[in-house]
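Support request, please re-run this one:
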Amino acid sequence: MVPETIKPSSESEPNMRLLIIEDDRESADYLVKAFREVGHVADLASDGEEGLALADSGDYDVLVIDRMLPKRDGLSVIGTLRDKGNRTPALILSALGQVDDRIKGLRAGGDDYLPKPYAFAELLARVEVLSRRHGGPAEETSYRVGDLELDRLSHRVTRGGEELTLQPREFRLLEYLMKHAGQVVTRTMLLENVWDYHFDPQTNVIDVHISRLRAKIDKGFDRPLLHTIRGAGYMIRDGIR
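Re-run finished. Output below.
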């Protein structure tokens, strides 16, 4: 069980991007919420196969992986990533806390091992250490598509030099679309990464927000940047008419 009180460090690393691979929904929701409350980006996978796919295709600073997972256990996920040359730091969470268990986890490719139960403050500190130790290219803090610019640090969006006012969800939606500029972004991708839904709520929430976002970033400009790809999803790209 995770602790109820969050005690983040006062010098938390800015804008880390984390992948939480945890099948216990209560624990997973807690971790995602806790990391986001201290300013980090946290994605979630609920089983080993999904976690492997996201870790393999995403650009994460640190992976936080539960050892006991459905479909593929945490050590298998880490081992497969290491075999593919993926060196993203991985912190293993597990109720198996004996010395032999920790050694097995580290030898499987884990960079740190934290037995359950744990204090979130310690987990956060360990994740920060792994992120600093790993170094590597920093995640982009701004995106540009044509004359549309988004700054993640200042939460500022401009087009043609004109500042646009977006609601938090609209900003997150635009950030995700711009991060995948030139690629088709499906409704499922948006539900999981912008709304944190791992199911289809059968509502028009995406259509409503896409419509509002399009009105703000395209209306009054000479060419549209946000496009609906019929039967597939959405795309931000400069040059489609």
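DSSP finds eight helices and eleven strands in the chain. The two ends are 53 Å apart (CA to CA).
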